[in-house]
Amino acid sequence: MSDCDTIKPKLPGLLRQELAANDLNEVQTHIGRCSSCRAYLLSLSSANADDPAISAHLLPQSTSNSRGYALILAIALTLLIGAYIAMTGHGLVTFIQDSDEPVFLRVAAMILVLTVSVLFVSVAYERYLSRKNDPYQEVEQ
Fold first, then answer.
1. Is residue 141 part of a domain?
2. Is residue 14 a contact partner of residue 48, using CB atoms and an 8 Å limit?
3. Interval 21-55: pLDDT, tens
4. Could you tell me the residue range of the domain that residue 96 belongs to?
5. Mean predicted lDDT score pLDDT of the chain
6. What is the spatial distance between Cα 98 and Cα 91, in angstroms, rounded to a whole number?
7. What is the pLDDT of residue 64?
8. What is the pLDDT averaged over residues 83-89?
9. Residues 68, 98: one domain?
10. Is 72 part of any domain?
């Protein structure tokens, strides 16, 4: 018996908010990674949209907390990136200007900092693209 076979019977209970906490966690985890069950859940919700319990569950929840969290997270990440750039720049300039250090080490340090910076920017950009193009962005997790 596959995971989907055990989860699909619980999906109507999820829509009606009748699941126990352990079942709820199991179903939400499975729905997060299984597109087949997610599609089945959406078909159930559209077929039963006239049921008040299901309609109430499908209405968007208050987003004030999530927006506040997102704002705090954005500020924290901006400060982290700014601090990284400032400290790395200061350390690199100090290291390069130190005439006691061999040229090879100074060049290697510049290459290392440049490589880490490029990787950091590429990962940030990929995350931005994946978040922007996420087809399940509006589905509640």
1. no
2. no
3. 788 888 888 888 888 888 888 887 766 555 554 44
4. 64-132
5. 78
6. 11
7. 46
8. 87
9. yes
10. yes
pLDDT at residue 122 in the model: 93
**Pairwise CA distance, residues 114 & 121, whole Å:** 11
Amino acid symbol at 121: V
Residue 61 phi/psi, 5-degree rounding, is -80, 165
In angstroms, the CA 138 to CA 141 distance is 9
Instruction: Give the residue among 7, 66, 55 at the shortest CA–CA distance from 31.
Output: 7
Torsions phi, psi for 74 (to 5 deg): -65, -40
Q: Which residue carries 């290697």 as its tokens?
A: 108
In 3D space, the residue among 108, 121, 109, 46 whose CA is nearest the CA of residue 81 turns out to be 121
Span between the terminal Cα atoms of the chain, in Å: 25
Return the structure tokens found at 112: 């290392």
38 and 69, same domain (yes or no) = no
The predicted-structure confidence for 115-127, as pLDDT tens digits, reads as follows: 988 998 899 899 8
At 96, the amino acid letter reads I
Measured in residues, the chain has a length of 141
Answer whether 39's CB lies under 8 Å from 30's CB.
no
How far, rounded to the nearest angstrom, does the alpha carbon of residue 129 sit from its chain's CA centroid?
12
- Residue 16 to residue 44: CA distance in whole angstroms: 11
